[in-house]
Amino acid sequence: MFFHPEQSQHKSSINASILSYGFPKVIDEGGTLRIGIEALEVQTLYAFVDRGATKDLAGVLVYTRIHDDTLVLLHMAVRPEFCYSIGYKNELVLVRILAQLRAIAKRIRGIKKLSILYADKEISRALI
Questions:
Q1: Which of 43, 53, 74, 89 has the most C-beta neighbours closer than 10 Å?
Q2: What is the pLDDT of residues 2-61, one digit of tens each?
Q3: For the whole model, what pTM was predicted?
Q4: According to the 3-state scheme, what is the secondary structure of the chain?
Q5: How far is CA 124 from each of CA 51, 55, 113, 118, 120, rounded to the nearest angstrom?
């Protein structure tokens, strides 16, 4: 996960997510790295920005299903250089990755709501 210069603005929300669901960590599974949370089955969505011959990891979301009808976004990170307020404004990494999460939620049978914890208050169960 990235350490973002503006993450202190969301400290209370980040801490609440960690207390409720657990701390995200990098896990080595047979030589493959993934982000996980101990004792919780989570999915991870990675955002890459195409830079010609290379693709730069620009952001990551960690989410899980908490109810039959709800996905919850537990943790999100965007590399500072891809953040709207600091770097490549035209990339819109966070907006695009959140749109992808919403598209994923729409494809999962039974999911009707998306809960986002990082807005200094929970955006609970927004209809998708």
A1: 74
A2: 455 666 776 777 788 888 888 888 889 899 888 999 889 999 999 998 878 888 888 899
A3: 0.80
A4: CCCCCCHHHHHHHHHHHHHHHCCEEEEEECCEEEEEECCECCEEEEEEEEECCEEEEEEEEEEEEEECCEEEEEEEEECHHHCCCCCCHHHCHHHHHHHHHHHHHHHCCCCCEEEECCCCCCEEEEEC
A5: 36, 33, 8, 11, 12
Alpha carbon distance 124, 22 (integer Å):
19
CATH number assigned to the domain comprising residue 50: 3.40.630
97-124 in b/e burial notation, b at 16+ Cβ within 10 A? Answer: bbeebeebbeeeeebbbbbbbbeeeeee
